[in-house]
Amino acid sequence: MTNFNKSDNGLIIFFNGIGVVIAYGMLALSLYMSPDVPLATKGYWGIGILLLTLALVNFVKLRFDERLSEDRITRVEEARNERLLAEYVGGDDAD
User: pLDDT over 90 for what percent of the chain?
Assistant: First the structure.
């Protein structure tokens, strides 16, 4: 079942990547083809889109790291509770 989830996630990431590439391509083409916009303005818009993309990637990475940290803390707490329960149950058997 784990292999199915991994391949499914890979396929979703692939399609999302294709969508992003197509969107950037269409945006670049529209900026290139627009005759009324000066080159300096096109460059300014391009830099803005690049910085927005970098900010979004950093935001997603931060959220992913935060979730991973919460999961790790939860696993440590569960392991600690299991150990305490095992010691408590084992302590009764020793008496």
Answer: 13
Q: How far apart are CA 10 and CA 45, in angstroms?
A: 31
CA distance 91 to 39: 77
Question: What's this model's pTM, rounded to 2 decimal places?
Answer: 0.56
27 Cβ contact partners less than 8 Å away, ≥ 6 residues apart:
49
Distance CA 75, CA 11 (A): 29
Is 42 within 8 Å of 34 (Cβ atoms)?
A: yes
Give 29-49 pLDDT, tens digit per residue.
Answer: 888 888 888 888 888 888 988
d(CA 14, CA 11): 5
User: In which residue are the tokens 């900026």 written?
Assistant: 31
Q: Which two tokens stand for residue 20?
A: 């992003």
* Tokens describing residue 22: 């197509």
